[in-house]
Design goal:
Layout lengths: L7 E10 L7 E6 L12 E4 L2 E9 L2 E6 L1 H6 L10 E6 L18 E11 L2 E7 L13 E4 L2 E9 L2 E6 L1 H6 L10 E6 L1 H11 L5
Antiparallel strand pairs: 1-2, 1-6, 2-5, 3-4, 3-6, 4-5, 7-8, 7-12, 8-11, 9-10, 9-12, 10-11
């Protein structure tokens, strides 16, 4: 469980594709985290995808992603040097600064427009059509693991505003139109929709 508050932007140090039995990739990610405190098997959100730590080195840790994860996320776009939003798993009692984020990506969105708006920057995001029913104005979404508030909705697009701090402390500051982002809807919206769908019709 995560909160969508990125605490480090790592960099892909090394990539190995078709890694072992997972048939996906293995990535070593350089980080400012104290790797002495990262245990094997720990969960770390990497650009919004919950991944398991399989190795730890000085100033880096390694994770594996299966072929299924690559098909459902942007991790297949990674290259050596790619920036990676990182968040350690929450512990009981930690501050929930964003919203509940599971690290289970629901789809891949596209950045279609980026423009300054006062001191912030407005992103217009194109989302997969089936996911739009779960996205509401003033609701929350996670984009590449960053908790953001939805400003407005227009068909299969929605807008979010990013303040200078978010641009400077996440990979979103480097994003340009045309790039893909991992999208996770608010899990509460998912469960509400499921409960509503199961209500008997009168």
């Amino acid at each position: 469980m995560f909160s969508g508050i990125v605490t480090d932007v790592g960099r892909v140090r090394r990539l190995r594709r078709g890694a072992g039995a997972v048939g996906g990739l293995e990535a070593a990610i350089a980080t400012a985290y104290d790797t002495a405190e990262i245990v094997l098997g720990a969960s770390i959100a990497c650009c919004g995808v919950c991944l398991t730590v399989v190795a730890v080195d000085a100033a880096a840790f390694s994770v594996q992603a299966s072929a299924e994860t690559l098909a459902c996320s942007t991790l297949g776009d990674w290259a050596e040097g790619s920036p990676v939003n990182l968040e350690r798993a929450l512990r009981l009692g930690d501050e929930l600064g964003g919203h509940l984020v599971l690290g289970h990506v629901d789809g891949v969105a596209h950045l279609v427009d980026r423009r300054p708006e006062g001191e912030s920057v407005r992103f217009v995001i194109e989302a997969p059509a089936p996911l739009m029913r779960y996205i509401a104005g003033k609701g929350s979404v996670a984009l590449d693991g960053v908790s953001l508030t939805v400003n407005e909705i227009d068909g299969t697009r929605f807008g979010v505003n990013l303040i200078p701090y978010t641009l400077a402390h996440t990979n979103l500051g480097e994003m340009r139109p045309g790039q893909r982002l991992n999208l996770e809807i608010d899990p509460i919206a998912r469960y509400v929709a499921r409960l509503y769908a199961e209500q008997p019709r009168r």
